[in-house]
Amino acid sequence: MTDLQNIGQQLSEILKKQNADYVEAHLEESQFSSISYRGKQLESISKTTSVGGNVRALVKGGWGFVSFNDLTGLQEKVEMAVKQARFIGKETSQFYESKPVVEDVAAKIKENPALVPLSEKKQLLDEYNNAIWSTSGIQTSNLGYGDANKKTIFLNSAGSFITQERADVTVRAVAIASKDGEVQQAGLSEGTRDDFRPIRKLHKEIKQLAQRAVEMLTVPTLKGGEYTVVLDPILAGVFVHEAFGHLSESDFVYENAQLKEIMTLGKVFGGSHLNIIDSASRPGLRGSFKYDDEGTRSTKTYLIREGKLTGRLHSRETAAKMHEKPTGNARAINYRHPPIVRMTNTYIEPGECSFEDMIADIKDGVYAKNWYGGQTSMEMFTFSSGETYRIRNGKIAEMVRPVMLSGNVFNTLMNIDAIGDDLDMNQGGGCGKGGQSPLPVSNGSPHIRILKCLVGGK
Amino acid sequence: MEEILALAKKVAEEAEVYMVSSEETPVHFESNRLKNTQYKQSQSVALRLIKNGKTGYATSTNMENAQQLVDDAVATAEFGMKAEFQFPAAKTFPKVAIFDGDVDKISLETMIQLGEELISKVTEYSPEVICEGGVTKSSYQLSIVNSRGGQASFMESVFGLGIEGQRIRGTDMLFVGDYQSSCRPILKTDDIVKTTIRQLELAKRTAKVTSKQMSVIFAPDGVTSSLVLPLISAFNGKTVLEGASPLGKKLGEKVFDINLTIEDNPLIPYNTSSRPCDDEGVPCQVTPLITKGVVMNFLYDLQTAARAKTKSTGHGQRQGGLPSPSPHAFVLSPGKVSFEDMVKSIDEGIIVEQLLGAGQGNMLGGDFSGNVLLGFKIEKGEIVGRVKDTMISGNVYQLLKEISAIGSDNKWVNGFLNTPSICCSNVSVSSR
């Protein structure tokens, strides 16, 4: 084993001696194991170990960054980062200063996936794959399991020395059914934090998704157009993360005058029932942590409160530049990348409307559940449902083929006219930004209702 | 590497050691200004072994601890899949130029200058555009040895440069930009600037679209984001073996338009996807996929080929894990129609440059749909403005059965796809 703590101590001394406005370093040691199936066949089973680190330096507003697997020659690596920063720095550094933190944060691991024998993981995955293949009409499937155990050390020139640990487990399953040249698929994505136990109980859900894929072959396609759409907590969670959450990331906003204007605090984005939150301090979720990758303590940030824009997500740099406070949202997927502004656990706060009341007055609408994929480009978003039903005369009616929902986020937020009382967090997500993917996050929502939502179709 | 191989041979029947190390120097611009420069050193070693006929696999970034790597691989072999292939013995590889020592000699100053030039030329044309840009030089060294005497090793240099501009008016956002890469230095910004400015020029006005079926020109970037993704899975030997590829039983049959010809070509000098061998040490070759509409070949790695009772086509690629069939570089043969003539021939239609959300939906079946992120309306043979709030959807197999026109304007997209513009009629377009 590499003695990370000892290397950290050495590095810490080097950082303090640099002639720079700010220097930080990350060290990381991790173990992964993964098992995947393609169809009935085991595709791969593997173990990975990784150790590496990076140094980031700020001089006169310019950043240098050096990442490495080779843990020797740390002095030169630090100097190289400082030299890079000095080479490009031509302004005054703006970086929110905070008091140094020295802390060893113990992980609250309930059942460590690294200690579950490979034979047991394999057995469990065999059972899940059998659950898919015991359904008739399945053409092929993908099933993937992964766990990661990670220890990170954060150091900076102000004297911070923070050690944190985490364990993540994910399971993804896709069942693909086909008949007469038609193909349909259904999927599931589950994740847990510091706990292997929930991963043992997915038999029923996996069986159901296989059955759903087969059933979807026989259902009609919805005609494209505008509908009143009810989203389930998973899809609404994806919507709030993808469509709105990314706009709250201040690194998009702080140097962009026009976007700043769109995202002016106090501006009305939705009805007074709308509250959107990002919170890494909510414990036990995939996006939870005590300190972010700049050593800032995690917070609970109201992005929208009673329909008005009230907050945004910051790193120490964006906070300083916008004269606001850091929110503890600077995150890096691993030591190969510098921290950037990211979401953590993002959700719509529950309201008071029951699901029955929400659909009661819909004559002809769409109930879109689950998530297949999503993409946004600032104001525009598209996301695909995994399971879709028609709503007729206040009742959930027949199943239809999955749909793609698309629109402008500002109009869509305004068009949310009902928010349910049934918040649920989805732990299966991984977020991508700036080439860093998948970062563990969670997102959630109660059921929500959107008026005049554009649904793609034939 | 030899040490790992020797240790592995003591406990397993067969073994292969794969090592990749890289150095990368990116320069990054944000909000029209130089933001940071980075230097990234990385290395990793992967051991694949066959023990009791089963495959084990482990990777590490730590070169020192060979025993740990062997132990991890052996642990996974107990549950691994049956190995049906053999590692390749010593081979001769095609010669393909993918390394240029000049790339590493490009100074940080020059890289910064290139980035600044890109941004200043675009913002000169349109001061309200806010640009993000990047200039990157990198080098990779890859080595493979196996217990059957096979070995391969090569170096690749890559230089890339690109710009992404956004223009915001109220809540209206426009995204433009282009990217180029090569194994040699790119010291001219002209092409990228020209493409970006043309996009801005065409987007000056917006045009109305009504929901109906109409002609759609997929520009090279649009071809990538909508039409090519389904084909990649359909030509994957694994998809074929599973019986899930719509083309699986169509080998030798004419499935596509007679003018459609696609090959996978990893031997183009200085293209960033080129290489002498794949990640299993199998020599690379040009593989015809569609010739005049006829399905010619599928893509295989060693294990998939063995199971399908055929030979590896040299497409065993690793994306962090075990090798799996994956294309190197798709090249679509150019047609005879210029882009301008293609536009002139259309009474009502749209040009799709970038599609958002493609790859969702039933890709395996060839379905695609998405929001037109960057696209233009054609009326009576002329481009009249940019389209907004517009979705298109269709099925690749239906659209490529009868292509209205194939352009002569071939262009590289991300070093992976070389394609002309493709015009299809009767594509479903919906708009609000």
Overall structural domain count of chain B: 2
- Described by the principal axes of the CA atoms, the overall outline of chain B is globular
> Whole-number radius of gyration of chain B?
24 Å
Query: What is the structural class of chain B?
Result: alpha+beta
Mean pLDDT of chain B: 94
Features:
heterodimer; A: 458 residues; alpha+beta; PmbA/TldD fold; 2 domains; 7-stranded mixed β-sheet; 6-stranded mixed β-sheet; 21% helix; globular; B: 432 residues; 6-stranded antiparallel β-sheet; 10 helices; 21 strands; 22% helix
Structural overview:
The complex is a heterodimer of chains A (about 450) and B (about 425). With about 450 residues, chain A is of the alpha+beta class. Chain A folds into 2 domains: about 5-215, PmbA/TldD fold (2-Layer Sandwich); about 225-455, no CATH class. Chain A is built from 10 helices and 24 strands. The termini of chain A are far apart. Chain B has about 425 residues and is α+β, with helices and mostly antiparallel strands. Chain B has 2 domains: about 1-200, 2-Layer Sandwich (PmbA/TldD fold), CATH 3.30.2290.10; about 205-430, no CATH class. In chain B, about 20% of the residues lie in helices and about 40% in strands. Chain B has helices at about 1-10, 65-75, 100-105, 110-125, 190-200, 220-235, 235-240, 300-305, 340-345, 395-400; strands at about 15-30, 35-50, 55-60, 130-145, 150-170, 170-180, 210-220, 260-265, 285-290, 295, 315, 325, 330, 350-355, 365-380, 380-385, 390-395, 405, 410-415, 415-420, 420-430. In chain B, a hairpin with a 2-residue loop joins strand 2 and strand 3 (about 55-60). The radius of gyration of chain B is 24 Å and the shape is globular. The chains are: A alpha+beta (about 450), B alpha+beta (about 425). Chains A and B meet through strand 1, strand 2, strand 3, helix 2 and helix 3 of A and strand 2, strand 3, helix 2, strand 5 and strand 6 of B.
